[in-house]
Amino acid sequence: MLPALLVAGVLAACAAWTLVRFMRADADLTLLSKRQPPLSAWRGKVVWIVGASQGMGEALALHWAAAGARLILSSRSLEKLQVVHARCCLHVAAHDVVLLPLDLVADGDGLERAAAAAFEAFGGAGVDYLVHNAGASQHAAVEDTSVDVAAALLRLNLQGPLALARAALPHMVAQGRGQHVVVASMSAVVPSPGQSVYAAAKSGLRAYFASMATELAERGVGATLCCPGPLATGLDGKPRMVYGANGLVTQAATGMSKKRVSTARAAELITRAAYHCLDECWIANHPVLLLGYIMQYVPWLGMLVLKRVGPARARALRDGKSGYDMAALLNEKGSKQG
Ligand SMILES: NC(=O)c1ccc[n+]([C@@H]2O[C@H](COP(=O)([O-])OP(=O)(O)OC[C@H]3O[C@@H](n4cnc5c(N)ncnc54)[C@H](OP(=O)(O)O)[C@@H]3O)[C@@H](O)[C@H]2O)c1
Predict the structure, then answer these.
(1) Local mean pLDDT, 10-residue blocks, the chain (338 residues)
(2) What is the per-residue DSSP string for 65-84?
(3) Residue 198 among the catalytic residues
(4) Taking the complete model, does pTM exceed 0.70, yes or no?
(5) Which CATH number fits the domain 28-288, given the four candidates 3.40.50.300, 1.10.287.3510, 3.40.50.720, 3.50.50.60?
């Protein structure tokens, strides 16, 4: 009798502890159970970040610079990259940060040339981590999104990273190592009203890189898919890129609400996932994190909730309001029914 009570007590304590951890979590519990790598783990590693000129990419650059990694920073704007370069140089020597401007969606063989330059950037040291961070979000309902806008979103968020990964592939295979770190989105896990094409692109990344990792498992090439929920970007005065109904617009600072994860914290978690070569990780506060688990394990329930929120979100976006305020969206639906 006593041992049974003891076992029940231990199980109850474990369940309570897991529940508390989950309620306080800002990432999936697998990622949070991994230890943060020591800073020395990154010394000398070569990290190529595409989309490094602002926002999440800049935060990743600063995190890895502080850890002593060697960096290759890419995006379209050399001017913006130079500002990030200067900030990185507070932590590492100037010659440890190489700028390699590129346009992910330009035609021609630009990405092949960029990949060749990146793998030679540090005297043939190659590239250990290739971070696919460039991207732009979408805030527009399905019926307001033209085919042209959808094509532009898919080109930047899906085709671009695929083309770059393809360009890097022979170099990674030749050096026998290389980890793709793909900054996708929780919209790849949780259906995202108002972000249909963006979600399709990020889901495409999830499928492509998972398939690639299975094909190349014996040759040292892997992929870590990182799915952030809402991040607090734009606080540095650099508005993020978002596609609205009529094409590309910029969105000013999103503010540091409790629901958003800071880019510094997201950088810490993304680098942790990359270090442990996790296949996938989720980085989000509740309720997005909770919805991720519900969609994974009880998808019908997730769809029930999201079908309640979705129409109100589409209306909010059309009216130029925030589509993120879940309580307001549920209330709107409730008051309409009432
Ligand atoms: N912010 C969020 O709440 C959030 C949430 C989940 C996932 N994410 C994902 O996180 C990533 C970064 O988001 P963010 O909010 O930091 O975005 P952001 O501030 O708009 O930055 C986008 C980055 O991509 C680069 N870029 C854009 N078009 C490019 C192109 N054609 N070729 C090369 N680089 C290009 C931009 O640099 P240039 O302008 O110099 O080219 C910039 O460095 C994106 O993939 C996004 O989908 C963001």
Answers:
(1) 83 90 95 94 96 97 97 98 98 97 94 98 96 95 94 97 98 98 98 95 98 97 98 82 84 66 97 98 96 98 95 85 61 48
(2) HHTT-EEEEE-S-HHHHHHH
(3) yes
(4) yes
(5) 3.40.50.720
